[in-house]
Amino acid sequence: YGTHQYPKRQTVSTSTITLSRDGTPIAYELVGTGPRLILIEPAGQFRALSAFDSLAALLAPDFTVCRYDR
Fold first, then answer.
1. How far, CA to CA in Å, does 27 sit from each of 3, 24, 47, 53?
2. Are 17 and 29 a contacting pair, CB within 8 Å?
3. Which of 30, 31, 34, 48 fits a disulfide with 13 by CB distance 3.0 to 4.6 angstroms?
C-alpha cells in the first residue's frame, strides 16, 4: 500500500473590532476555513479566558470559527 501525503490545511486567525448599531465596539476573532460557526461564550466572558480554546482548534480545520467578546 502506498502512502499518500495530503496537504495540510492552513489555519488563519484574524482579530477584528466592529461596531454595533449603537456604536458599541465588539471584538471578534475568525480562525479556520470552511462554513462559518459562531461560538458563544457565557455572559461576562471574553476570548482571553475562553473555555472554547481547544474546541475552536478542533473545529478550525473544517469551519471558520468566530469567537467574540461579550
1. 43, 10, 9, 16
2. no
3. 31
Query: Cell triple for residue 36?
Result: 462559518
Residue-by-residue DSSP string for the chain: -----PPPPPP-EEEEEEE-TTS-EEEEEEEESSSEEEE-PPTT--GGG-S-HHHHHHHTTTSEEEEE--
pTM: 0.67
Please name every residue paired with 26 in a beta bridge, in sequence order, or none if there are none.
Answer: 18
